[in-house]
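Issue: copy button drops trailing tokens. Both records pasted manually instead:
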Amino acid sequence: AALQALLKNPLADPFLLGTSGGAAAGAATAALLGASPLVSPAAAFVGAAAASVGVAALARRGGRLDLQRLLLAGLIANAFFSAMLLLVFSAASGEAARSMLFWMMGSLADATPSRIAALLPYAVLGGAALLGFASRLNLFAVGEENAAALGVNTEAAKRIVFLAASLLTGAAVAFAGVIGFVGLLVPHAVRSVAGNDQRTLLPASAL
């Protein structure tokens, strides 16, 4: 929801921006190297963080985070990680490839209290950052230049919103795998009921 507001693009989601792909590539690579399943969440999170930093670096122009280039950089990252995943699958044994495939499909079967507790710090930190910028995201709807004219520090807002969304995505994908439709469809479903005010849309989408 935050990325759709920031980019003013109804098709924006963490998968499109390469964050989910980076997480999947990290976990698949760890599995290929024979790491314990307990390592997969950490490897996925590292992959998501690397993807986010790489996309942000590619999207910089003249010291600014260019939103159009951010989307293009995300598409490039997504294509790269898709190719990387195919390479990992081609090198994996049958059993390893099968386990990686099931992980990438995503599952809530391991939603135990301990895992929820492990996710809580990421959810609180990322969620608080996005909610703190909800009113500024509303102003992005009238355009970045207009938001700046209304007093929004657009560069800080872009960086924090993108990094907070990446943090939330990396943590979720690390524990539950890639469930791609959630990030794209949930905000639209909620928007049809709760409207487009980010102060309401963001917490409702989280729920």
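Record 2 (pasted manually too):
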Amino acid sequence: VFPQAIALGCSWDPVLLEKIFTATALEASSRGVKQLFSPVLDLAREPRFGRTEEMYSEDAYLAAICGQAAVWGFQGRDGKPDANHVAATLKHFVGHGQPEGGRNTAPINISKYDLLNSHILPFEKCIQAGALSVMPSYNEMNGQPNHASKWLINDILINKLGFSGLIIADQDALREMYKTHHMVATLADAAKVGIENGI
């Protein structure tokens, strides 16, 4: 049993983290697991949020180097998982660590500057490390759910960051477009929006 991410971040030791996640990958793959929903690259910027233990830090650079260590540990340095490795999933793209009121899945209000220069940095570094999957976050920015944001998924994730792997929906995120965000009329419409947006 290894420490939570927030404790691993306190180590400032990416070499140790890579060893930990290499062991985790071996254990997961030995049970038939091929993909993990980790690492969490959210920045712990909202102290009331009850999920900060999943995050490495409020600092973008520290989250980036911890995330890279996780990707290399999970997938291997060549980015092609074998019998001893699994695919990593970067989450939650992006801004999930700073929700309004500290509420899970709540909207986020951050400047475009902070988004592009802080919150995106860990994802950029982990994509460069070869991460095979990305999970958008539940939250919305500027009144639009991240799963439905063409700007965020296509312009930023795919075109700017060069991600070409699997974009996987968070648990109920597509349903939330219909049920919570009220941006579509039916669940089928929500699925259509997600698929057309690369999910």
